[in-house]
Design a protein that fits this description.
Elements (H helix, E strand, L loop, with lengths): L4 E4 L6 E5 L4 H12 L4 E5 L5 H12 L3 E6 L2 E5 L13 E2 L4 H11 L4 E6 L10 H9 L5 E3 L2 E8 L7 E3 L5 H11 L7 E4 L7 H8 L4 E4 L2 E4 L9 E3 L4 H13 L4 E8 L6 H9 L2 E10 L2 E9 L7 E2 L11 H9 L3 E5 L12 H11 L4 E4 L2 E6 L7 E4 L4 H12 L5 E4 L11 H7 L3
Parallel strand pairs: 2-15, 3-14, 6-7, 10-11, 18-19, 22-23
Antiparallel strand pairs: 1-23, 3-5, 4-5, 7-9, 8-9, 11-13, 12-13, 15-17, 16-17, 19-21, 20-21
Helix pairs in contact: 1-2, 1-6, 3-5, 4-5, 7-9, 7-11, 9-10, 10-11
Amino acid sequence: MSAAAARFSPAGAISGELAVPGDKSISHRAVMVASLCDDPVDVLGFGASADTLATVATMRALGVKIERPDDDVLRVHGVGLRGLQAPSGRIDVENAGTLMRLLPGILAGQMGEFVLDGDDSIRRRPMGRIAGPLAEMGVALETTDGCPPVRMHVSGQVAPVTYRLPVASAQVKSCVLFAGLFAERGMTVVEEPVPTRDHTERMLRDAGVPVDRRPGRVAVSPVTRLQLDEVRVPGDFSSAAPFIVAATVVHGSGLTLRGVGINPTRTGLLTVMERMGARVGLFNRRLAGAEPVADVEVRPAELVATEIEPELVPALIDELPLVALLACFARGETTIRGAGELRVKESDRIDTVVAALNAVGGHVEALEDGFRIRGVPARLRGGSVDAAGDHRVAMLGAVAGVCSQHGVDVRGSDALGVSFPDFSERLAGVTG
């Protein structure tokens, strides 16, 4: 990342209508699952970003032809369930953590040697959490002190497993379920202590995989082929979240976001905001393929503090920095616990969020696994925020800027391109 900087000035209101890019998590999965189908698959509403385009480049490197007739449309010419080819060099996942953790499950069923690598941030990501269950399935991962680069020498032989997640993680769950597609016989079962995002299960079921979902567990049976005609990607809830938060905090706002994915495993932010007294309404509910979608209307509100329990964290893990920002404007003290996973994101997202919010006038304390925030129901002072190479922290700084008295300079604002390349332009379009 370069040291690009951007200034986000105070807003008089956040108003109008807005559409956000296609869901990043679903876009990753759509490209990967479509690549394993026997026939071409159209991906409509693809959320193009540095991370998702890294997945496109990776699947191309593995022998998949992918056309992009429009910015948000892909045509993926799948090579079949076991048709991926080992490239001559390393696979560069760049900064895409989802790709790094899901792809080994797919490669488990292929033939040959694969080496996965990425940028400096990726090389700090712990891979033991997928190496463990894959080893139980007979698939060995070689790492460097538990982190990437990752080397896999695979023969396509996979044993089914029943695996209980020690830590709630949709990425680990998805990796194991993908590997389970290649098992010789028997179901692969993942037990999870609390529900995590279920985009993989929904898409696999759409592709013809026998998926058995029950409270606390999900299982897949092996298949010989996948079949999808198209994948419709809804608007990314995590990309909508900064606008929802800004319109809640800035007086005089009135904002509508169209076609946003409201998968209940992703919308914990709405649960928290309701507790805090926010005015957010969902209208025109419908389905986009296997995913629920709605239009979101937001009005300003006076907020009160709350406590966020660990069980809720998986449903709002990406939005926790924004929850901490909301808590700065709420009456009382807000506590967030059970979010230790934030320490192994693109940055140590607990420390970087605390530093960012305190730098602009917040009163935020780092806990080992979360935050304690003392709210002051007034605009933040403003100042300067270091994104630390983390796109979520860059968005946090931007929203803090429009909600502040004097504005916020975000250093490393180019990190926004990881998930939302034109975020600044879209924010300016609804800022009065």
